[in-house]
Every structure is written in C-alpha cells, then in structure tokens.
Specification:
Elements (H helix, E strand, L loop, with lengths): L10 H20 L6 H26 L9 H24 L20 H25 L5 H37 L3 H34 L6 H4 L5 H46 L3 H32 L3 E8 L5 E6 L4 E8 L5 E6 L2 H15 L19 H8 L25
Parallel strand pairs: 1-3, 2-4
Helix pairs in contact: 1-2, 1-3, 2-4, 3-4, 4-5, 4-9, 5-6, 5-8, 5-9, 6-8, 8-9
InterPro entries: PigL_N
Pfam family, one: PigL_N
Protein name: Azaphilone pigments biosynthesis cluster protein L N-terminal domain-containing protein
C-alpha cells in the first residue's frame, strides 16, 4: 500500500495527486445530467485547473532546476479539497436516492460551510497561484513578452484581491469557531479573547511590513555595475545612488527579519488557539472542520506570499523597447539584449539589403556576427581574387578597399574613362 500523500511527499507526487483529484471531481460532476449555472461554472473551473496542473507537471519534468517547493501546500490542499467535495456530492446523492439523472440538490452541497460558488472560487485561488508560479519561472528565464508581462501583472493583482477576500472569509469562520469554543467556560473565554486580540495585532504588523516592503521595491533606484560606472562622467551621481540603494536594502532586510519574527509569533498564537478550540469542541466533526479551516488559512496566506514575491519580481524586470525605427538601405541592425532583459520591437523597417537580429544574444555572439558580416561585405564582387586585380593605378582591390572603403563593380555602360578599373570609389555602409 502506497504511503498517504502529505507535505513530506515529493513535488511530482503532489502534482499528480492534485491532478487526479481534480479530474475525479470533474468526472463526477460531468456524470450528472442536471447542471445549473453554478455547477457548469464549477465544471469549467475544474477543467481549467486540470490544464494548469498538467502544465505544471510538464514543467517540473522538463526543468529540474526550477524550484516549485512553495506550491506543495496549495497542491495538497487542492487535492484534498477536490476529494472531499467529491465525497460530499456522493453522500448528498445517496440521500436523494442515488439517481444521476434527477439529482436536484446541488444547492444543498456544503463544504466548510459554503456552497458551490465559494468552493469554485477557492479552486480558482489554487489555479491562479500555480499559474503565477509558472509565469514567474518563465520571467526569471526571460521567456516572456512585454504584453505577457503586463497581463501577468494584472493576473497577480486579480489573484491577490481574490485571495485576500478568501482569507478574510476563513478568518471570520475561525473567529466564529473560537468564540463558540470560548462559551465553554469563563477562563476559556478570557484566554481565547486575549489570543484573538494578539492574533489581530500580529496580522496588522505583517500588513504594515508588506506595505513598506512593496514601497521600497518601487522606489529603489537602479545603480549601474562597478565596471560600467568606473569611466562614467557622472560617477559621483552613481555613487549617491549606490549609497541610497544600500540604505534601502538595509531597510528591506530589517523588514524581512521583522516579518519573519511576526510570522513565527502568529503561528504560535494559531497553534494555541487551535489546541484550545479542539479541547473545548470535542466533537470529531467540529475537529475535522477546524483542521480544514486551519489548513486553508495557511494555504491562503502562502498563496498571498507567492503573489507578493512574484509582484516584486515584475518590478525588477527592465524592457528594452525599440519602436518606429527606420533602417537605411544597407545596414546591420541589432535589437537584442545581452543581459537577459526583455526585448520589445515594433514597427521596425529596413532597407532592401539590410539585415536584422533580435532577441536574447550574448555579447560574444553579437561581436562574432558583426565580424562575419563585415568580412562578407568586404569580399570583392568579382570572380577574380583581390590579389590579382588592379584598380588601374597599380593598387590592388584589397589595398583600395582598406583606403577608400567598399566599392561596386561597374558594367560596361557605367565604366569611367579608365575602363581598366573594376571598382568605383563609392564607399559602402
């Protein structure tokens, strides 16, 4: 018998578990004939979730170096939620006679106290988080377009707003459960009220840290690297920027340390609240529901953290924009980045004999291409080797070219009075 899936399971196993669970639930929903609007929406969400999970599975198999460990808890919760909701449907169907053709009790389905719409939105949160993690991996590999980056930012904003609403709902349910547990005795009521106040204060502190961290990321100035700035005429200005940035980095480090301490404190408070509530609510059903709420609370907060880090990564992305550029008749143009930045080129025109290169290129590649094209341009346009051709004054073609530039072979009707000269002194570009 295989070991049960848990957070200690490997990432591949968790992705497979979530994918199989979502597919199982999709097939269960699809097997019923009666599909109200909210059930059809759930079915579509499950189909979209399966697509994202499949993409994650393929990415994990292709790129062993990409770290998706932060997705382990969302994947576990996603798989468990789908399995548990599938059980809810089965139990409700049995109470209704077990018929899949006349099942009408969709409105009675409840999971963690909510109906189908809330469950669908919870799945959408998992899907968005996984999509953002995949896009963030592509962003780090510079394989995203400028348009894709803007769409990615919007996706992060929408996912963050939805996750915040979801977390607020989970918080309210937890608070209600804690208050219900506090009714058991005056001592429990006092202790739970004190822990709830401390929990709210800690969450407020974390929110302040997050806001300040986001602001610092936005105002942090760009400082050229030492090699580039060494010969800069504005070196004093660059040094000032570096000092400013170092100070902001210190502030960011301090905020991160503070946030980590608050996170540990919040986890300690939550553990004590959960233990107190489980003791005061001995019902196995209440305990199981409280455990789901705790896991979903941790998952929602983790998903929000992933969105926050992904949003910070977008602020570090620099796009090289080339637009409305008109090239000459004979020109070698590069619209490229040697530092991994995104290249956005639009409305670029070029002469008939021009050549363009674009995208991500190493500096060595650009230099080599330039040398290759330079040599190709300087090949004499005749079938005679440069060493055996005279320009008419005893100067070889290669010597002429080095002095006056590339020339063009003239036809008989274009020849100058000195017809023995095979090249004209017109310099190429």
């Amino acid at each position: 018998m295989a070991d049960p899936i848990s957070l200690s399971s490997g990432l591949v196993a968790l992705v497979t578990f979530a994918l199989k669970s979502s597919t199982l639930l999709y097939n269960t929903v699809q097997s019923y004939r009666s599909h109200p609007k909210n059930v059809r929406d759930l079915r579509e969400e499950l189909e979209a979730l399966a697509g994202v999970l499949q993409a994650l599975s393929e990415t994990v198999e292709r790129n062993n170096d990409t770290d998706f460990a932060a997705l382990k808890l969302p994947l576990l919760r996603c798989g468990n939620a789908c399995r548990e909701f599938d059980d809810v449907i089965a139990k409700c169907s049995l109470r209704s006679g077990g018929s899949k053709t006349s099942f009408r009790d969709w409105a009675k389905l409840k999971y963690m106290g909510d109906g189908i719409d809330e469950f669908r939105r919870m799945l959408a949160g998992y899907k968005s988080t996984i999509s953002i993690a995949l896009a963030d991996a592509n962003l780090r590999q510079s394989s995203v377009t400028a348009e894709g980056l803007e769409a990615y930012k919007v996706m992060i904003q929408d996912a963050t707003a939805d996750l915040q609403d979801h977390l607020k709902g989970i918080d309210e349910k937890l608070e209600s459960t804690f208050l219900r547990a506090a009714d058991e005795s005056d001592e429990d009521r006092i202790q739970i009220r004190q822990m709830q106040e401390e929990r709210s204060s800690t969450q407020q502190g974390l929110a302040i840290c997050a806001q300040l961290s986001t602001y610092i990321s936005r105002v942090q100035p760009f400082v050229a690297d030492d090699q580039h700035s060494a010969d800069s005429p504005t070196r004093s200005h660059v040094v000032a920027e570096r000092i400013t940035r170092e100070g902001l980095v210190e502030c960011q480090d301090t905020l991160n340390n503070t946030a980590n301490r608050l996170e540990k404190h919040l986890k300690s408070i939550m553990d004590r609240l959960m233990a107190k509530a489980k003791t005061a609510l001995p019902s196995s059903q209440d305990t199981a529901e409280l455990k789901r709420l705790e896991e979903e609370w941790e998952t929602a907060r983790l998903c929000l953290d992933l969105c926050s880090k992904a949003n910070e990564n977008t602020t570090r992305v620099t796009i090289n924009v080339f637009e409305d550029v008109k090239g000459a008749e004979e020109v070698l143009q590069f619209f490229a980045s040697t530092t991994g930045r995104i290249v956005h080129a639009k409305k670029i025109s070029l002469g008939a004999r021009g050549v363009q290169f674009g995208g991500q290129l190493s500096d060595a590649s650009i230099q080599q291409i330039s040398r290759d094209f330079s040599r190709a341009e300087h090949v004499a346009p005749t079938d005679t080797t440069p060493e055996n051709v005279s320009s008419g004054d005893g100067v070889g073609v290669s010597t002429f070219r080095n002095r006056y530039g590339l020339g063009f072979k003239l036809g008989l009707h274009e020849a100058q009075p000195d017809a023995s000269s095979p090249t004209a002194g017109q310099q190429g570009h």
